[in-house]
Amino acid sequence: xxxxxxxxxxxxxxxxxxxxxxxxxxxxxxxxxxxxxxxxxxxxxxxxxxxxxxxxxxxxxxxxxxxxxxxxxxxxxxxxxxxxxxxxxxxxxxxxxxxxxxxxxxxxxxxxxxxxxxxxxxxxxxxxxxxxxxxxxxxxxxxxxxxxxxxxxxxxxxxxxxxxxxxxxxxxxxxxxxxxxxxxxxxxxxxxxxxxxxxxxxxxxxxxxxxxxxxxxxxxxxxxxxxxxxxxxxxxxxxxxxxxxxxxxxxxxxxxxxxxxxxxxxxxxxxxxxxxxxxxxxxxxxxxxxxxxxxxxx
Length: 298
Hints:
By secondary structure, this protein is α+β, with helices and mostly antiparallel strands. Helices cover 42% and strands 11% of the residues.
């Protein structure tokens, strides 16, 4: 079983003494892997990877018929729920950076969604709206006719069949070392924490922020270490006959990859421009998004 804290109480509304959403969970034993992994031997790190493979098999052992979160209905049954993603616009950024009539619902998708193309289309419509209303995105408005054509292209029947050909699986989506608690002596994983952005995703999006196996430290050495650990993880998965964890997590067509690439770079532009960030990069991102949309005939 995947070790997770037990939920003691929660409220997804603001109708409580705190005045906002909350979740109260049990405190679990162990130290953050980010704090102690440098003291582990090679054998102990192998043990960490083997445990993570076991957890991945449990998470990814089922296919689903929706993209989104999981909710509990009034009868206690687990049912499809809305999406929650790390890249969403949250308050106070909405209040500080967007026109006064914008809100969480106008800037973020909801769901659940029945297919990959429906999920991507919902994102694209939010990016289109953002480009239309935010002054910092005015330079992107010349792309809007192409974006309209792109939405039409990915929603034609033949293209939908091709683009939606991918497993839908449950993923943590933010499984870096700081979200893994371990026994600092035995390297046994005692808890996986911070599941707020978990959900059912097209399997190629199981690790959208590339956080998996990151040691939660900045720098080139950290990235190199993560790459080496990922290669070791993939080799171990294949050796243990769990190669589908690697194979099924890849795009199934060039068109599918282009669709996701266009969405990724449009999202990046919409995310940074209102914050006046990455000014030196956005024109290259725009070019990449335009090319990805053109790859699908838009």
